Amino acid sequence: MADEVGLRERKKRETRQRISDVATGLFMIHGFEKVTVAEVARAADVSVNTVFNYFRTKEDLLLDRQDEFVGRPSRVVRERRPGESVLAALRRDYLADLDQRHWRSGVPDGAEVITRLIDDSPSLSARMRELAERREELLARTLAEELGADDDDPRPALVAAQICAATRRLQADITRRKTAGQGADEIAPSLRAQAELAFDLLEQGIGDYGRR
Fold first, then answer.
1. Exposed/middle/buried for 95, CB within 10 Å: 0-12, 13-18, 19+?
2. Secondary structure (DSSP) of 110-122
3. First to last CA, the chain
4. Which of 23, 27, 78, 107 has its CA 20 to 30 A from that of 159?
5. What pTM does this model have?
6. In contact, 187 and 107? CB cutoff 8 Å
7. Cα distance between residue 118 and residue 122, in whole Å
8. What is the dihedral of CA 60, 65, 67, 73, to 10 degrees?
9. What are 123-142's pLDDT values in tens digits?
10. Of 188, 79, 189, 175, which is closest to residue 128 (Cα–Cα)?
11. Domains located in the chain, CATH noted
């Protein structure tokens, strides 16, 4: 029985990934606004209902990793090491993504294509702003829970806002340079230096906050 459940779940994951991959390919060729969900379904050889069984909205077809984007900072905070502050844990995770050129960093070559799709689509741009707000709000709630903050304590929200603003600024610079045609090898060294500077500045204000 466990093997059957595992097989079903694997097939569901594979189907979801195939639909997302097909949709992303169509969006890259034709543009997000010009491709319909019905066209995605036909290309993926599934029904429209099947598409919506896996993806709530058309935007979700492209932003299929949104749960990871929204929840990553909160998870890093919850899993921070003994003696490690909130900021130190998030710095470690962010720099590791840069060094490994993980998709979360926005550094890998080709990431600018997705960025252009988002910038060219009002609905995708609006969804990204919504996800950024959810990410910050979730981080603030996590900080409050982890540190046992009172409801009227402004620090969790203020700390979350500072950290998220810094990483958004870093991401904006990555996007600017990538869309200008600079490759990952060209920008990686200076990006790391900028990230170190950003976290150093945050360290002066919230460095010991939430030290475990």
1. middle
2. THHHHHHHHHT-H
3. 41
4. 107
5. 0.87
6. yes
7. 8
8. -140
9. 999 999 999 999 999 999 99
10. 175
11. 2-62 (1.10.10.60), 66-206 (1.10.357.10)
